[in-house]
Amino acid sequence: MARLEVKGLCKGWDFPVLDGLDLTVEEGEFFVVVGPSGIGKTTLLRLVAGLETADAGSIIVGGRDVTRIPPYKRNVAMTFESYALYPHMTVFKNIASPLVARKTDSAEIDKRVSEVASLLQIDQLLDRKPGEISGGQKQRCALGRTLVANPDVFLLDEPISHLDAKIRHELREQFHTLDALRKVATLYVTHDYSEALSLGDRIGVMGSGGLVQTGSPRELFEKPGDLFVARNLGQPTINIIETKIAGKKLESPGASFKLSAKQQNLLNGHKSGEISLGIRPQNVRILQGDEKPGRGHQAFKGSVDIFDALGAHSIIIVDIGGTMITALGSPDAMYEYGQEVTVAVETGSFHLFDTKTGKVL
Amino acid sequence: MAVTVGGGASAGAGATLPDWFTSKKKNPSNLIVARWVPIALVGLPVLTLLAIVIYPTIWMFYHAFQDTNMMRLFQHNWSFVGFENFKTVLSSARFGDSVWHLVLYLTFGTGLEVVLAVILALTLYEVVKNSLLRVILLVLIVLPMMLPPSIVGVLWKFMLTPSNGAVNHALLNMGLISTPVEWFNAGVSLWSIIIADVWNWTALPLLIIYSGRVSLPPAVYEAARVDGAGGWMVMRRITLPMLKEVIAIAFIVRFMDAFKFVDLVYVMTSGGPAQTSELPAYIAFQRGIREFAIGEAAAYAIVIFACSAVIITLFLKYLKKVLKAQAIA
Predict the structure, then answer these.
(1) What residues does each domain of chain A span?
(2) In terms of domains, do B4 and B137 share one?
(3) Is B231 on the interface with A (CB under 8 A)?
(4) Are B95 and B7 within one domain?
(5) What is the total count of domains within chain B?
(6) How far apart are alpha carbons A70 and A52 in whole angstroms?
(7) Contact criterion met (CB below 8 Å) for B181 and B252
(8) B188 touches chain A (CB under 8 A)
(9) What is the 3-state secondary structure (H, E, C) of B41-56?
(10) Cβ atoms of residues A80 and A160 within 8 Å
(11) Exposed, middle or buried: residue A8 (CB in 10 Å: 0-12, 13-18, 19+)?
């Protein structure tokens, strides 16, 4: 058991994919890397696993530099997006394969495989082949293969993204409760922000070249460091409104947003005066009937542009004089296209970004 | 006319089917094309098959039980002899010898071809990483297969000529032999045919196995690398087991060819000397086409057909079971 350190990791093919990526995963920590597809998340895992060689930088597992040594000497275990089970072997043999490769004696193999299998609730399936089990069971089998080897570092590549929603939920629960996963350094890669928010002890948001921001799920959600992080965490996507500073207000076409004294201080001495205003849909609500906006809220009149009822909640996009704003609605209220509504925006929740640099102010 | 459907499971009670659906005349302008084109497309090949496969087969089965030869055939004067032809075939020492030759050919010819194909295909895939070089080597390996067997036979007959053939010349010059090998003597001629056949046909199983290796999922190999399996272990525990079915199919293809193997035997040795390099199919050909013992030749053909059909059916059954377990078929 050990911590994983990645320092200044660089890798590129015809263009640079990772450019000086730094990352530390403590022993026992569940670190989730989240980012859009094609950004280099899987490349990062493959580099740590040793399936690719780094162009520069170093990978340190438990104080030992493993950058130049082959995969099997690194004591890392990896699950693959496609599971990569051996189709001609039974589930038992699949799980046992890392032990067989390390020439463990057969009594020990039996013991450890059955331990892992009962942990993952696949002990009835040990005699079947991968072609005869379901997707969720395959994923558990693949997970079993990584768990059985007692590695220092776990690398999980989108382990649950190809499963249907119900099994995904079940496995996500399992990730929370598996003690084995909680004892080692785990690096988990996903493109699904909600998976990241729910699983990670810490999250790293990956942008082009490296991690844009790292922190606890709460930190990242409440204080996104830049537009990229703000846009990629949260569903529905955060409202980003292009505005200009006008005295104590931010002006956008058709709407002007009042700022508190604290927020005005942040804008003091801003050169270009172009600000991207971020408002989470959770902080925008539609007022019902004669309801007045509460303290710390600013009201806007507008008309409904899109209404999406999703069961547990609904998403309403409202046109306030040319500026579109997304609001989260309660499940019982229904709206029609063009309906006149009043939206209340919680002014304390504004995220202010510099439009030019994308950084938070 | 609109029809009302009552109480269907999917269509609720009172659902109405549209007129175009219930009408008998659907798009009448295309009716002739729609009806006759499929019949013509299926019918023509069926007629062709009937003429050149089904009819001759039935004819063969019929004459296997007659005392037909050339003379009687033209005089329409053949008569039923029961299993007489089969008795002749199964009791002849010539047939027994040819079966032994077939066993030798299957073991050392077909077997060697498949083993060589596995070695070459995997070497080509694992060792040669330059894709241009790989294509060039592949083309070179496949070249012999593109030659007609009759040419291959003549070629090897020249090369193996004892007095001044290229092979003996090379072996003598390298000092591997001191006197020329008599390649077409009794006991050696079958091996000459096997050598030529291996040269001619190794490329076919090689192509099958190579393409099988190309289509194996790369993620499995990466998993093996992380697991810590070395090169030999990967070969033994992953590559070969996963290629098992492909190798079996390559073997079946060559196995079936063995039962109808005539061309090289005919060109190189004509089964000789003294019938020491005859294979069953060659005897059937010799008896039927050269000596016009048509009834006997038909019996030969049926015996060969029955043997290969039984063996291959068993083989395919086993294969299907394996494939099913891996959810491939």
Answers:
(1) 4-232, 239-354
(2) no
(3) no
(4) no
(5) 2
(6) 10
(7) no
(8) no
(9) HHHHHHHHHHHHHHHH
(10) no
(11) middle
If one counts every other C-beta atom within 10 angstroms of the C-beta of residue A132, the result is 15
pLDDT in tens, chain B (329 residues): 444 444 444 444 456 787 777 776 656 666 777 778 889 999 999 999 999 999 999 998 998 888 888 888 888 888 888 888 888 888 888 888 888 999 999 999 999 999 999 999 999 998 888 889 999 999 999 999 999 988 999 999 899 888 888 888 888 888 888 888 888 887 888 899 999 999 999 999 999 999 999 988 888 888 888 887 778 888 888 899 889 888 988 998 898 888 888 888 898 888 778 888 888 889 889 888 888 888 888 988 999 999 889 988 988 888 887 777 665 54
| DSSP secondary structure letters along A43-70 | HHHHHHHTSS--SEEEEEETTEE-TTS-
Asked: is A4-232 a CATH 3.40.1000.10 domain? The reply is: no
B326 touching A (Cβ < 8 Å)? yes
Q: According to the 3-state scheme, what is the secondary structure of B203-246?
A: HHHHHHHHHHHHCCCHHHHHHHHHHCCCHHHHHHHHHHHHHHHH
Report DSSP state, residue B16.
E
Q: In what order do the strands lie in the sheet with A185-190?
A: A76-79, A153-157, A185-190, A30-34, A202-207, A210-215
Say if residue B96 is in the same domain as residue B26: no
Token reading at A329: 């609605």
Question: Which CATH number fits the domain that encloses residue B148?
Answer: 1.10.3720.10
Which range of residues forms the domain containing residue B11? Answer: 1-32
- Using the Cα atoms of residue A144, residue A145, residue A150 and residue A154 in order, give the sign of their dihedral: negative
Q: Is B236 on the interface with A (CB under 8 A)?
A: no
Q: Three-class SS of residue B279?
A: coil
Chain A residues with CB under 8 Å of B327 CB are 87, 129-132
Structure tokens given for B101: 């030759």
Q: Is the domain of B98 the same as that of B228? A: yes
CB A275 within 8 A of CB A354: yes
SS3 of A249-262: EEEECCEEEECCHH
The owner of tokens 């030759």 is B101
- Return the closest-CA partner of residue B88 out of B112, B66, B56: B66
Is B180 a member of any domain?
yes
Query: Do the domains A4-232 and A239-354 sit in the same CATH topology, yes or no?
Result: no
**3 state DSSP class of A356:** coil
Task: Answer yes or no: do B9 and B125 share one domain.
Answer: no
Query: Which chain B residues are closer than 8 Å to A150 by Cβ?
Result: none
Two structure tokens written together for A19: 């450019």
The answer to whether residues B289 and B173 belong to one domain is yes
Q: Are residues B187 and B298 in the same domain?
A: yes
Where are the alpha helices (H) located in chain A, listed in sequence order?
41-49, 91-101, 106-119, 135-147, 165-177, 179-183, 193-199, 217-222, 227-232, 261-267
Residue B38 lies in a domain: no
In chain B, what residues touch A89 (CB-CB under 8 Å)? Answer: 241
Q: Is residue B191 part of a domain?
A: yes
B230, B244, B325 ranked by CB distance to A129: nearest: B325
Domain A239-354, architecture per CATH? Beta Barrel (2.40)
User: In terms of domains, do B28 and B97 share one?
Assistant: no
Q: Is the pTM of this model over 0.80?
A: no
Q: At A188, is the secondary structure helix, strand, or coil? A: strand
Q: B229: which chain A residues are within 8 Å (Cβ-Cβ)?
A: 72, 97, 101
B226 touches chain A (CB under 8 A): yes
- In a domain, residue B12? The reply is yes
Q: Is A178 helix (H, G, I), strand (E, B) or coil?
A: coil
**A86/B328 touch (CB, cutoff 8 Å), yes or no:** no
